[in-house]
Design goal:
heterodimer, A: about 400 residues, alpha/beta, six-stranded mixed beta sheet, B: about 290 residues, two-stranded antiparallel ribbon, 15 helices, 9 strands
Chain lengths: ~400, ~290
């Protein structure tokens, strides 16, 4: 009980008041460390609550603080644990802030996925997915140089798998951000393509012409409101995708930065929303935050179950009729393919377009024969390869049309 | 200022069966002068909170329903153009200034909910319903209004609030609200009520529902919510169902399994959910109801 904790046992004598203020600011710091948006104003209000007699009963204080400090459902649910841990000395069961990510041997962090040179990841892959075109890719990059194309062109044609040099990867990431910017400007320039002949806005016309005594000289027409397109990305982070995950994480980072409305999720055996972590402007810090959430990345894929979670908990908030859903996955489903089909049908009802990007499609001799991709394809509006920057750039006109 | 216990008393007197936390939230609202943001699934009774709040403070409820494309002229104020024109036409001899003074006066101003809320002599409850449906631009405008409580009308000057309204915002989570708006507000997550509370809500709202029937209905609805449904029934649906059962003279759910099956349409609102609830499923769930 709080009454027993030293800070609050004091009455509002000078010393006690200072002690409480100290404890309170430490609590605010704890909240901030745990990702709560708590400002000075909230601190003052909290002090007011304590002065106003709310500290008499711990349950009451907790409930009052909960209303004051939380601002979304996730925080609402985590708050009690943090409060109890701080004021009552209980142990927190829920996730609280940690400085380093615990890495299980089987679940490499995304950061390590990103930084691992691609040629060393070969051993992780299931045997049926060993790429056939490794040498091919190397040859192609050689050709690029001989033809005297710019380095950017050469990069654009290299399969992401074959980018091992850090600077090469960085360049590819910049290109991804550029692409996202390009896509956005195309999308918001839709007013150029407006149809002519709007209806008159009678009320506004009268308003505009009051200065002419009501004679309608200036006509006001209804304008169509420009509504931004929303892009929602679901990225497969399973073992079979490990060579592409790093690239697409950077791509998502660019997308979230540049699009006015975008959301991103990561899935492997379960689904994790990553938009908040990725909104960190510094990519390295974003990856740090992300790797904490990515426990289990690099294992199998349960696409169907992940989509089910998405449909159940996130779809209503995230999807609307102007949403383009982009799924990046190889379609190797280790769960139930029929479930995947059902969930895809639900998704298709909910959003405007579904784009499925498959990095494996660029490989020679690949055909969509995995059970997962077969079940999903009927509901997909565009199924495209995405193993080179060029193939991503090729998507742009399609996305601009939405 | 009303104390927390008084609030809880008045809430139950008003027929709103609240959990203890809500009374705290309402007490904080008047103490810290902050708006209250309510989030929760559709149909858990968010709008009812505002109605109950109006009863608690014994004041008027002003409601602004948000929708896509909601703008200032529908939310704040608008001039009554037709009357302005009439006034101009009727009095052509008057000087331009006189006409201007006349047509840009109180008389020609149409109050919309937001302006109405700050011009009452007694602070009303302002319910801004489903704020997530409005555009982000409107949200920004709302933020400004909620911090200053004043409105400037170019033709007339600035109108400052005569009383600060009790503001309740609700959101269904169809769009992520801005952090700025969230930070301005106290936050309360409205969850589905537990069996006991839902039974008490049924008894308070549906005349003729006895304790045992109300408990049975609440338990049944609770287990239906746990099924994998596309649209989970809310409290409003429960009340509909209870009213239907009472209207059909059902006293015990076990006595009338067919009626239960037929009236499930009050709870299940999509074809898929209806198809999933075959009589066997209903019987299985009924079996768990005491």
């Amino acid at each position: 009980m709080i009454a027993r904790s030293p800070a609050l046992a004091m009455n509002d004598t000078g010393d006690g008041g200072r002690l409480i203020a100290g404890r309170l600011s430490a609590f605010l710091r704890t909240l901030r460390d745990n990702g709560f948006a708590v400002g000075l104003q909230e601190g003052q209000d909290a002090a007011m609550l304590i002065a106003g007699g709310y500290a008499a009963r711990p349950a009451l204080l907790r409930s009052a603080f909960r209303h004051l400090f939380t601002s979304r459902k996730a925080e609402w649910e985590r708050f009690d644990g943090l409060f109890d841990a701080f004021w009552l000395g209980h142990r927190v069961r829920s996730r609280s802030v940690t400085t380093g990510a615990a890495k299980a041997a089987n679940s490499p962090s995304l950061k390590s996925l990103l930084e691992r040179p691609s040629d060393q990841t070969g051993g992780d892959r299931p045997p049926d997915q060993i790429p056939s075109g490794d040498d091919d890719g190397a040859e192609r990059s050689g050709e690029g140089r001989m033809e005297g194309a710019s380095l950017a062109d050469h990069l654009a044609e290299t399969d992401f798998r074959n980018m091992a040099q850090p600077e090469q990867i960085a360049q590819a990431h910049d290109a991804a951000a550029r692409l996202a910017r390009l896509m956005r400007t195309r999308l918001t320039r839709r007013d150029l393509a407006r149809r002519r002949g709007y209806r008159l806005d009678i009320r506004r016309t009268i308003h505009a012409n009051i200065s002419h005594g009501g004679v309608p000289i200036q006509l006001v027409r209804r304008k169509r409101k420009d509504k931004p397109l929303r892009l929602v990305m679901l990225l497969d982070a399973s073992g079979s995708m490990s060579m592409y995950t790093g690239f697409f994480i950077r791509f998502i980072h660019g997308v979230l930065d540049e699009f006015r409305e975008a959301e991103a999720f990561l899935f492997h055996t379960r689904l994790a929303p990553i938009s908040d972590a990725m909104k960190e402007r510094d990519p390295a810090r974003a990856l740090d935050r992300l790797s904490m959430m990515a426990q289990g990345a690099g294992g199998g894929t349960r696409i169907g179950e992940s989509l089910q979670t998405f449909n159940r908990w996130h779809a209503a908030r995230v999807l609307h009729s102007r949403t383009c859903l982009m799924i990046v996955s190889d379609g190797y489903e280790t769960g139930d393919a029929a479930l995947l089909g059902r969930e895809m049908a639900t998704l298709a009802r909910r959003c405007r377009r579904i784009v499925w990007l498959n990095p494996m499609m660029g490989w020679e001799g690949y055909a969509p024969e995995a059970a997962g991709i077969k079940a999903a394809l009927p509901h997909v509006d565009l199924y495209a390869r995405a193993n080179t920057l060029q193939s991503l750039l090729a998507l742009e006109p399609y996305l601009a049309k939405l | 200022m009303i104390s927390r216990d008084q609030i809880a008393e008045r809430l139950s007197a008003a027929g709103y069966i609240a959990d203890g936390e809500l009374a705290t939230a309402i007490a904080l609202m008047q103490m810290l002068k902050r708006p209250l943001l309510l989030e929760g699934e559709a149909g858990v009774g968010k709008t009812e909170v505002a109605k109950a709040l109006a009863v608690v403070h014994d004041t008027e409820l002003i409601r602004l329903q948000c929708y896509e494309g909601l703008d200032q002229s529908a939310a704040l104020y608008e001039w009554n153009y037709q009357r302005q024109l009439l006034a101009i036409q009727a009095d052509r001899s008057a000087s331009a200034e006189a006409i201007e003074d006349k047509i840009f006066s109180e008389k020609y101003l149409l109050e919309r909910p937001l302006l109405a809320a700050i011009r009452r002599s007694r602070a009303p409850v302002l319910l801004i319903d489903e704020v997530d449906r409005a555009d982000t631009e409107f949200e920004a405008f709302l933020l400004e209004l909620l911090s200053d409580y004043q409105v400037s009308i170019p033709e007339m000057g600035t109108i400052t609030a005569t009383s600060i309204p009790h503001v309740v915002l609700t959101s269904n989570g169809t769009r992520e609200l801005s952090d700025a708006l969230r930070r301005r507000c106290l936050y309360h997550y409205v969850d589905y009520p537990d069996v006991d509370r839902e039974a008490r809500i049924i008894m308070a709202r549906v005349a003729g529902a006895g304790t045992s029937l109300a408990l049975q209905i609440a338990t049944m609805v609770q287990s239906i919510r746990r099924e994998d449904l596309r649209k989970v029934p809310g409290v409003a649906e429960t009340l509909d169902w209870a009213a239907a059962l009472v209207g059909l003279d059902v006293r015990d759910l076990h006595d009338a399994p067919e009626t239960v099956q037929d009236t499930l349409m009050c709870l299940l609102k999509t074809h898929e959910d209806r198809a999933r609830f075959k009589p066997e499923v209903t019987a299985r769930l009924l079996g768990k109801v005491a």
